[in-house]
Specification:
single chain; alpha/beta; Rossmann fold; globular; Isochorismatase-like_hydrls; Isochorismatase-like_sf; Isochorismatase-like_dom
């Protein structure tokens, strides 16, 4: 994927997706979790400095999980175990990357950030054309949301080291071979430099 030539902060948003305690503690190694948290926190601070909108995505359900069908093989286990109820401790966004005042948190009930949510409406209402994506997991919310956003004609940048997966091999294949077909892939340090340069 070619580099996005014109990077305009006012038309860009950083999506921090599924950085929730349950996912960080159960799907990533302790080392990977610490690493992605530190890099995503730095990226979020740089985005705010550059006046790039920061938007959070989190998976969550009402008590009793009425949003989950028994036909859904992935989420039926979540329902059976009573997990990811909105407001429960394990559903909280990790405090190292928690939203600041005025930053929206969009609750989703499926894998993709755009599935049955108001994300597209919020982005279009704010004139957003470029999305910078950080998410857990790479094979889950990142892959699904990149494909959805690509179909919606957004410019896409993936912060490679702000994504992680339970399977390092799958993460590597997606970041190096699959996702570059739809998005520019960069590491957080390079994106932070780019954000800083955009202020000048």
């Amino acid at each position: 994927m070619t580099t996005i030539k014109k990077f305009e902060p006012v038309k860009s948003a950083l999506l921090i997706m599924d950085y929730q305690r349950l996912i960080l503690e159960n799907y990533l190694s302790e080392k990977t979790a610490a690493d992605v948290l530190a890099k995503t926190a730095a990226l979020a601070d740089a985005a705010r400095e550059a006046e790039i909108k920061v938007i959070y995505i989190a998976v969550g359900f009402r008590e009793g999980h009425p949003e989950i069908s028994s036909k859904n093989a992935l989420f039926s286990g979540v329902k059976k175990n009573g997990l990811l109820v909105t407001g429960a401790p394990e559903s909280e966004i990790h405090p190292d990357v928690s939203p600041q005042a005025g930053e929206p948190v969009i609750i989703k009930h499926r894998i993709g950030a755009f599935s049955f949510t108001g994300l597209d409406m919020i982005l279009k209402a704010n004139g957003i054309q470029t999305l910078i994506m950080a998410g857990l997991t790479t094979s889950g919310v990142v892959l699904s949301s990149v494909r959805q956003a690509f179909d919606l004609d957004f410019n896409l940048i993936i912060a490679a080291d702000c994504c992680g997966d339970a399977d390092d091999y799958i993460h590597s294949v997606l970041i190096n071979s699959i996702l570059p077909q739809h998005a520019e892939v960069q590491v957080a340090a390079e994106l932070i430099k780019r954000m800083s340069a955009s202020k000048n």
